[in-house]
Amino acid sequence: MVFVLWRSHLLVIDGLSITGVTAWKYGTAWAGIALLVGFFEESLLRGYLQFTLSRGIGFWPAAVLLSLAFALFHISNGGESLLGLLVALGGLVFCLSLWLTKSLWWAIGFHAGWDWGQSYLYGTPDSGLLTEGYLLSSHPVGHPLWSGGATGPEGSILIMPLLLLIAIGMWLWWGRSKEHQATSSIG
Question: Using an 8 Å Cβ cutoff, are 138 and 122 in contact?
């Protein structure tokens, strides 16, 4: 996403913000925090609650409700925008990974990597929150609808095709192997 924004001249990377030991310390600290957030949010919303609600109302209705809850968690973030709340669609992509793999690991890893990349590596806001100690200094350019503005890359309308491509990629990777396994066991 950052690459697309940068190549579209909607994000400018100004250069290094920190270097040396300081960069390693912050990079490690933010990696740990991103992993904790990934574990917490995915375990809560795509783990226990998804399993429990699915037993009562079905997998996809539970996925929609919990993805909306995921978006509501982000409302309190200072720089969050209405478009940034489309993070609910990201929640649905995480649910798709759970549905296809029966595991939270992909969602945890992607979530943690996304947060670490935005917060530390590229120094962009993540759901409207800008952290301290980011490696690269960057800033959005142009209309927030396209650049993401104060929300960060996930606040850009360009997140929609990216999420669609991720979902298609997951379906092609995991969905086809599921179909192959089903036909192999029949024949």
Answer: yes
